[in-house]
Amino acid sequence: MTDTSKPLNVLFLCTHNSARSILAEALLNAIGGGRFKAYSAGSSPRDNQKPNPLGLQVLEKAGISIEGLRSKSWDEFAKPGAPQMDLIITVCDNAAGEVCPIWPGHPATAHWGYADPSEGDAPESEKLEAFRKTLHLIKRRLELLINLPSDKLEKTLLQTTARELAKE
Prior knowledge:
CATH superfamily: Response regulator
CATH topology: Rossmann fold
Number of domains: 1
Number of strands: 4
Number of helices: 5
Strand content: 5-15%
Structural class: alpha/beta
Largest sheet: 4 strands, parallel
Oligomer: single chain
């Protein structure tokens, strides 16, 4: 990323694109300071999939905009004319193990696994707390990413840097 005026495009992937990837997209766009442009997608979103309402509630309570957030297939980002990604991060173990499309520009990739806060039959109050904790965990890693010096975000180092952040 030698052109500092161009933001680094980051795509967060999950299976359904309704919880973790949506949280990561909204959060990075909120805290990235213009150095990053975040997107999210799913490997197999369900028909009429929408972002999880509890995730949207947690984002709003944290003061993060939910405008424009929607569940979508990762196929949108492999098509001609789609924004070219610099970094693709899987945030669920299922998506990490799937065969991804061939991404234009051969972006760096990393896996930052998080438990699914929407999984199970827990009461809504417990799921809400799970979403809040997941948002906090994602924020911790994203703060490390956005505070990296520019040389760590150079294309040749980006994959190694992003993968090292998974250990944080």
